[in-house]
């Protein structure tokens, strides 16, 4: 059997594949004895699950609505009532001048990045080639391998602001950021996976201005942001203009399995996404929209995010930070400011082993994290910093997170020769 060159993208050692396989294996074993601090699975928040369960029950109890949910292909742009509810919510909350023609749904936002990156990078009719600019690393592991053509990225190392003895924050290094002719789009996740960074309003405004100046889209991956799921612990603005492609997701609301992503963008972008949806999969799944439509129309999705999801993760993040600070006493470590998302990003300056080796040692002890080096797509130089960091999710049960943190601290101390 011979596989095409295209297949190499999917059969290599993609970081996202390792991550999802680790997650799948841990879950297949019932998750017992494994501290799954690696994946991006959201927490099971009882109040949210209960609300979603009630909504599903209501759908099951309405035979016509149920038949519609499972028996029809949606339009390739996405389920129209959910799109209408989203449109009204964004207009109401943010005053954006958008219509339903500015919104499309995708099979999860991961699929949206596959589509968007290949719409704006690769070969162009003028004979040129363009890339996606990642103006600040580290960046989401799931972007790494979605490009049909390579190289896909241009990426810029961040500046590092050290804060106190044990915290730090990455900042966009605008001195090093140039928008060359081969840039097809700019992309940032905000809050950032893996670091929990939230780019400041000033950083976003400057990126937006650069996008306008060079007439390229600014893609903002808002999978953890406002208005839902609102896993963001800083007060920041959420801008939109025709220059911005805003990506949202129902996953971190507690619905990763329904695979529903949302794109808000200029009409030609939505038309292109609609075409790609039709060709790749005919239509999106209808269950996510059916579950979320009513709570989107009523605004309850915002209340649940603000009053349940946000405080839940904020408390979990503070707790995990306190456990790390206690467990790592005596070690040279820094943790990125936890401003949002569901991860802590730890940096061990001068770590004597690579973060990949640390990942392997932790896996042997039943603790799954993600090695930092996977989060630097497009970085051409081998920056030592990328081998000194790990990403740890704090979304699993507090007992699991606390046990995992204890083992991480032991292995890091061992690596530094402290024990
Ligand atoms: N963007 C970021 C920053 C993420 O962390 C994730 C998932 O973890 C995604 C996008 C993709 O999420 P989904 O495809 O479930 O919407």
From TrEMBL:
It is an enzyme of class 2 (transferase). GO terms for molecular function: pyridoxal phosphate binding; valine-pyruvate transaminase activity. Its cofactor is pyridoxal 5'-phosphate. GO terms for biological process: alpha-amino acid metabolic process. It holds the Pfam family Aminotran_1_2. It comes from the Bacteria. GO terms for cellular component: cytosol. Its EC number is 2.6.1.66. Gene3D superfamilies: Type I PLP-dependent aspartate aminotransferase-like (Major domain). Residues 61-405 form the Aminotransferase class I/classII large domain. NCBIfam families: PRK09440.1-2, PRK09440.1-5. This is Valine--pyruvate aminotransferase. It comes from Methylohalomonas lacus.
């Amino acid at each position: 059997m011979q596989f095409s060159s295209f297949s190499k993208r999917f059969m290599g050692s993609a970081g996202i594949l390792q991550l999802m396989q680790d997650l799948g294996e841990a879950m297949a074993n019932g998750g017992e004895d494994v501290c799954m601090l690696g994946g991006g699975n959201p927490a099971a928040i009882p109040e949210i699950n209960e609300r979603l369960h009630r909504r599903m029950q209501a759908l099951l109890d309405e035979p016509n609505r149920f038949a519609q949910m499972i028996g029809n292909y949606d339009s390739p742009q996405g389920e129209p009532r959910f799109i209408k509810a989203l449109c009204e919510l964004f207009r109401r909350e943010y005053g954006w001048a958008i219509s339903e023609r500015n919104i499309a749904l995708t099979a999860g936002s991961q699929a949206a990045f596959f589509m968007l990156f290949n719409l704006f990078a690769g070969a162009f009719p003028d004979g040129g080639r363009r890339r996606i600019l990642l103006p600040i690393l580290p960046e989401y592991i799931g972007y790494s391998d979605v490009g049909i053509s390579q190289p896909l990225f241009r990426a810029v190392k961040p500046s590092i602001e050290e804060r106190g003895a044990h915290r730090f924050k990455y900042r966009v290094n605008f001195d090093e950021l140039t928008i060359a002719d081969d840039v097809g789009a700019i992309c940032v996740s905000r809050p950032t996976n893996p670091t929990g960074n939230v780019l400041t309003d000033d950083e976003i405004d400057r990126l937006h201005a650069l996008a306008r100046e060079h007439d390229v889209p600014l893609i903002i991956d808002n999978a953890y942001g406002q208005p839902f799921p609102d896993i963001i612990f800083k007060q920041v603005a959420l801008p939109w203009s025709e220059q911005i492609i805003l990506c949202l997701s129902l996953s971190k609301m507690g619905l990763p399995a329904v695979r529903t992503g949302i794109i808000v963008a200029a009409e030609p972008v939505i038309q292109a996404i609609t075409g790609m949806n039709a060709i790749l999969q005919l239509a999106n799944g209808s269950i996510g929209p059916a579950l979320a439509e009513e709570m989107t129309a009523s605004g309850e999705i915002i209340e649940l995010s603000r009053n349940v999801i946000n405080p839940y993760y904020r408390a979990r993040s503070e707790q995990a930070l306190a456990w790390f600070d206690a467990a790592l006493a005596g070690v040279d470590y820094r943790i990125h400011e936890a401003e949002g998302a569901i991860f802590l990003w730890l940096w061990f300056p001068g770590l004597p082993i690579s973060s990949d080796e640390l990942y392997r040692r932790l896996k042997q002890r039943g603790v799954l994290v993600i090695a930092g080096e996977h989060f630097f797509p497009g970085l051409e130089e081998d920056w030592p910093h990328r081998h000194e960091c790990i990403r740890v999710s704090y979304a699993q049960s507090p007992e699991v997170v606390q046990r995992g943190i204890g083992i991480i601290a032991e292995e890091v101390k061992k690596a530094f020769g402290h024990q």
